[in-house]
Amino acid sequence: MRVPDLVRLYDYDSWANARLLAAVARLTPEEFVRPVAGSYGSVRNTLVHVMSAEWGWVERCGGHARGERLTPERYPTPAALIAEWARVEGYARELLAGLTDDDLAREVAFSFGGPTSVATVGALLQHAALHAVHHRGQVALLLRELGHAPGNFDMLYFATEGGRTEGGR
C-alpha cells in the first residue's frame, strides 16, 4: 500500500460519511438518541463509536491526540456530532498529508487492555477506514428504520460520480 492509496480510501470515506451525515442531520434530537436494535443502542452511540475509534487510530499513528474515548453524552444533537466529525476528519487528513510510503511500514504497538498487539501505520489507517464502512451499513439500516433513508454510498458510486483524486484511478 502507498500513501495515495490511503488518501483515495479516505476520500471515499469522507464522501460516504457526508452522505450518511446528511441523513443524520434530518433526525430530530429524539430520533438521534432513540434506543434501537444494534450493537451500540442508537444512531448517536454507533456514530460516536466510529468517530472515537477513527480518532484513536489517527492518534496512535502520530496524529492529533484524542485522549480518552469519546462519550455519546457529549453529542446531544446531530449538529454537535457532525461538527466534531469534521474536526476528526481534518485530523486524519493532516496525518495523511504528512506521511510518506516508508511511514506506512512503521510498526505501532497498541492494546485494548489485554495483551499488546503490533501493526503497521498503513494497516491501522486502512482498518480505521474499513471499520467505518462496517458501521455505516449499520447506521444506514437504523436510519431506514427511523424513516430517513440515506441513499447509496457504495464505492462504485464514489468512483462513477466524480470521486477521483490525484492518487486514485
What does this structure look like?
With 169 residues, the chain is mainly alpha-helical. It has a single domain (3-99, 114-160), classed as dinb family like domain (Four Helix Bundle (Hemerythrin (Met), subunit A), Up-down Bundle), CATH 1.20.120.450. Helix content is 57%, strand content 5%. It is built from 6 helices and 2 strands. Strand 1 and strand 2 form a beta hairpin. Helix 1 runs parallel beside helix 5 (121-145) and helix 3 (43-60) packs antiparallel against helix 5 (121-145). The longest helix is centred in the last third of the chain and has 25 residues, at 121-145. The two termini are 14 Å apart. Residues 165-169 have low confidence and may be disordered.
